[in-house]
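tokens incoming
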């Protein structure tokens, strides 16, 4: 006797499962971002641990500007308006000092760590094309060379003692000179040795270089270098992401 399609051997799909297949996915809970005041508090605490003078400098800047505004207001016989203007200016000055000191403290935390030079390049302003990974690495010593492309040309930033990182720099400079004969290649050695630049000053030094390329030429140089496809695996211990400094807000 033939079995009908509605026989007991058929396994109907449960109704709950049918609903689950066509129902919308549950919305993921939104991660609540810390407020601006909380972020500033974290930056202040981090900075104060490395620079105990920062609270006093901020207070001095605030009180100094408020005092000057008050004196000017008294001379003009309008001290209320002077305070209304002076208090926000004092807060702005204190915030500016916190921002500069926080950046110094952040660099002090990552100095002498692998990837610190790459972190310094991450603070560059618009107009620069940088890479998170080094373009040349010595796996044994963890010395590295990072690269940035901007209107001054190509900038190579080394990480390691001068006598040890020099072969890496020379090899990278010769390779770039072959494919970019008309582009200036600058070299900056980061560190605390003779002739080296502290990582906190690397970005400033790069921004002071004379501009030689247009924006279109910068893009063309970047594409030319990218066509080489010379990305290197990162040796164990070098992680530029972990070395990124926390900038003051």
């Amino acid at each position: 006797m033939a079995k009908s399609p509605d026989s007991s051997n058929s396994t109907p799909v449960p109704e709950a499962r049918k609903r689950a297949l066509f129902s919308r996915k549950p919305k993921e809970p939104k991660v609540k971002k810390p407020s601006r005041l909380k972020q500033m508090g974290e930056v202040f605490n981090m900075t104060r641990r490395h620079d105990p003078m920062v609270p006093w400098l901020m207070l001095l800047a605030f009180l100094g500007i408020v005092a000057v505004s008050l004196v000017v207001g008294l001379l003009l016989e309008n001290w209320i308006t002077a305070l209304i203007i002076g208090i926000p200016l004092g807060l702005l000055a204190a915030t500016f000092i916190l921002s500069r000191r926080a950046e110094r403290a952040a660099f002090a935390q990552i100095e002498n760590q692998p990837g610190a030079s790459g972190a310094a390049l991450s603070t560059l302003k618009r107009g620069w094309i940088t890479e998170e990974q080094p373009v040349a690495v010595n796996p044994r010593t963890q010395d590295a060379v990072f690269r940035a492309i901007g209107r001054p040309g190509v900038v190579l930033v080394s990480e390691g003692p001068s006598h040890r990182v020099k072969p890496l720099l020379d090899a990278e400079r010769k390779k770039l000179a072959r494919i970019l004969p008309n582009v200036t290649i600058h070299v900056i050695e980061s560190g605390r040795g003779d002739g080296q630049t502290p990582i906190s000053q690397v970005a400033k030094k790069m921004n002071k270089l004379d501009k030689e390329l247009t924006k279109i030429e910068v893009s063309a140089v970047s594409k030319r270098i990218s066509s080489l496809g010379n990305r290197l695996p990162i040796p164990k211990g070098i992680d530029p992401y972990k070395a990124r400094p926390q900038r003051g807000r």
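note: Residues 1-8, 231-249 have pLDDT under 50 and may be disordered.
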